[in-house]
Amino acid sequence: MANREPLKPFLLAFPGPLRDRLVAAVLSGEKVSTSGLLAEYEAEREELPPVGERSALIDSDGREIAVVELTEVRVLPLGSVGLRHALDEGEGYTSVAGWRAAHEAFWHSEEMREALGDPSFTVDDDTMIVAERFRVVERLG
């Protein structure tokens, strides 16, 4: 994609082993959805991405690995996340409970609390999340 417009970064987790696993799952086609906190968009004063937006999937070294296109963006309470979304995250979840436990651990991590500017941040069934579906449209490099 020479001479293309710069793309917004598509960041999964924080740099490190988790991001590396998630990027690999996207590239393999196992991961076609992701979840974020609406509070994170609010803390960063970011608009929600529109369906059709293309972004650059970024690895732990900051390299653009692929171009992904959003196919769906939903805002819903954490307690409403269904099994299809959990399975499509491509991280081996077989239940919503397993998906939720892993995501709560991440969202309650020191790194996430620091990113949100709230050292005691916690989630519950009413916490609003942003559920995104995407597809890889091009591999880079």
UniProtKB/TrEMBL annotation:
Database matches in InterPro entries: ASCH_domain, DUF984, PUA-like_sf
Domain ASCH as annotated: residue spans: 12-138
Pfam families: ASCH
PANTHER family hit by this protein: CYTOPLASMIC PROTEIN (PTHR39203:SF1), CYTOPLASMIC PROTEIN-RELATED (PTHR39203)
Protein name (record): ASCH domain-containing protein
